[in-house]
Amino acid sequence: xxxxxxxxxxxxxxxxxxxxxxxxxxxxxxxxxxxxxxxxxxxxxxxxxxxxxxxxxxxxxxxxxxxxxxxxxxxxxxxxxxxxxxxxxxxxxxxxxxxxxxxxxxxxxxxxxxxxxxxxxxxxxxxxxxxxxxxxxxxxxxxxxxxxxxxxxxxxxxxxxxxxxxxxxxxxxxxxxxxxxxxxxxxxxxxxxxxxxxxxxxxxxxxxxxxxxxxxxxxxxxxxxxxxxxxxxxxxxxxxxxxxxxxxxxxxxxxxxxxxxxxxxxxxxxxxxxxxxxxxxxxxxxxxxxxxxxxxxxxxxxx
Length: 303
Description:
The chain is mainly α and 303 residues long. It has a domain at 3-107. 57% of the residues lie in helices and 3% in strands. It is built from 13 helices and 2 strands, in the order αββαααααααααααα. It has a two-stranded antiparallel sheet. Helix 1 (3-16) packs antiparallel against helix 2 (47-60), helix 2 (47-60) packs antiparallel against helix 3 and helix 3 (65-76) crosses helix 4 (90-107).
């Protein structure tokens, strides 16, 4: 059978007529075969004709996978075009299903590079990420939720991985160095994570085990540096700050919000009132010293 001749006859008839019923646009030369979006390359067809034309294209170009994917999408797409789209027969559906399953079995377990011989472009990655932003699942029924919960209840528990598993992974990862690009990406991700926590007003609380692990890691690092003969040079300002000679907030002005928070905490805890011990200490220090505020009245307590 001459499939190309039948395809050309359908398109020549469509160029002359004007359809008033439901119609679909069709590319005479498909985009996967270097077709364009010009008016000369587009024809309006009925749903049945559109489906038949794509079947003929699959027969004309049997090695083109994109044409097979298009006809499979037309035969299974339902949501928007449930009433208007052409429904294929059982025989054609079975034939398409077999070809589609063969195609998926060939693609299974292969990467993008193995299939197409090149890496994904940045434009493609961005387009996929933008499509998935704000994407939500449709509302689930209560029966579906109950089935899902019951299936997970009867599921066996995952086994706990012991120290041996952790040691194996540590041995595999030792000696591997991260690239500069990966380090920069990790820094950017950490900054974004901290900024989000600050906006939400969440503070990270470390457990005692995490603190011990941090101390152990610092000790190991210091030992390695001593063995290699490397010394960390600190500036004089940082040394004085660590000793307590220079305050950490030197040159920084406290905002009104921080001052109001301090006042509220003192009011709640009554910390602005001096204890008897502190009063006695102040009296002992001021004994024998002339008072600078003699004859002056103290202002009212602001607290």
